[in-house]
Amino acid sequence: MLYQILQRLRTRLRESRPSRRRPQPQCRPQLQLLETRLLLTTANVLSEPTFRTDEFNYAANFDFDLVAPKDFRDKIEGGQQSSTSASLKWHDPVNASGFIAAEAVGTGTAEFYWLDPTAGNDPSYTGWLPCADYRIYNAGTYSFDVNAESETVTVTDKEALVSRYDAYQSHAIGCEQPTPATSYSFGGSLDGYSGTYDPQTLEVNIGYDRFHGPTHVVVTTDVISSGPVNTDPSTFTMTLNPYGSEEPRGVPGVDFLDLNNAGIDLTVDLAGKAIPPVNGDVWEPVAKVRLFWADSDMNKLEGGEVQMDNRENLNVYWNNTQIHVEVDDLSDSPHEAEFLIVELDVADTVDIANQKLAVPIVCNDESPFILELQTEEFVRTDDMSGSIVCKGEGTVYVGRNDGIDRMLRIEDATVITGRA
Predict the structure, then answer these.
(1) Fewer beta carbons below 10 Å: N end or C end of the chain?
(2) How confident is the model at residue 35 (pLDDT cuts 50, 70, 90)?
């Protein structure tokens, strides 16, 4: 009994003693040097880019060939097609919708194969005999889609408007003039039509090839001309627009660039005849807008090109008529930068000169407030953190550009404003 009591006391003593814990290593946070990250300038689309709608002339020679094996054949050689109206509306650098209203004329011959059942094997009583000679007039329309990348034309609709024979002479019984007259250019099945588009010559070509049972009908065309009506010289016009408001401060973005409160709002307009794609590649821009920091209106700084996010929004494609872009979040300008040069860099294969606009960088626009030094000018300098700021010393006038331009006068002041 006494032994059990002693055992319990020992157990309680052990439980009452503080436990000895092993010393734990202390967690000491460490700082690691990270690589420099560059915040890219953003080019935002202000409105969807617009693309060309071209009227064009279409003229082609065509051959019609219908063959029913060992029975009948009908042929027009050297017919002529010509458009009365034709247009092509582009939706992007690749896809367009087109329409052609055209007339077709031609002279043809029809023949039938005769086998005299009483002639036995005498070949003089068998062969192709004249059926009819005729001259046709057809009028109709094609609606179609163009894929400039694959250079294909898909006819989506067609309509035969007028079909008549201006002359017809039958040479055998059963070869009388058909009623109604056949539409040789516009009367086929829709799935038989196909065509090509050449983005270098801007030519549309539509033909026909289809079996109707055993009868094979082929219409081949040889385009004489299919170029746009507009033959004026191609031109580019780059314009800087007021940025940020309908009532701009002065003319920001045109007369000067205030990096505190403004960015660049620009349009590029294309006019005149269409520009063929660069080396046949419809996705290769014919021009690009690029931005450079510069220490004068002529001299770009080495490595001074402004790096862009959404860079593709500043591309000008071969069939654009306008792009309208706003450039925001301009990265910090180098200390020696006095200008931002906006350049339209035209592809070497396009015979149009580059364009360049130099925008002076203004130091210190705190609209709607006006800060004006009495004798000196604000200068761009580095603050203690290395950021570029505007600094002025001396007598400072404070006003508002929407009210009194000089409300306060402060003597012996040092004024530092935000990023220049």
Answers:
(1) N
(2) very low
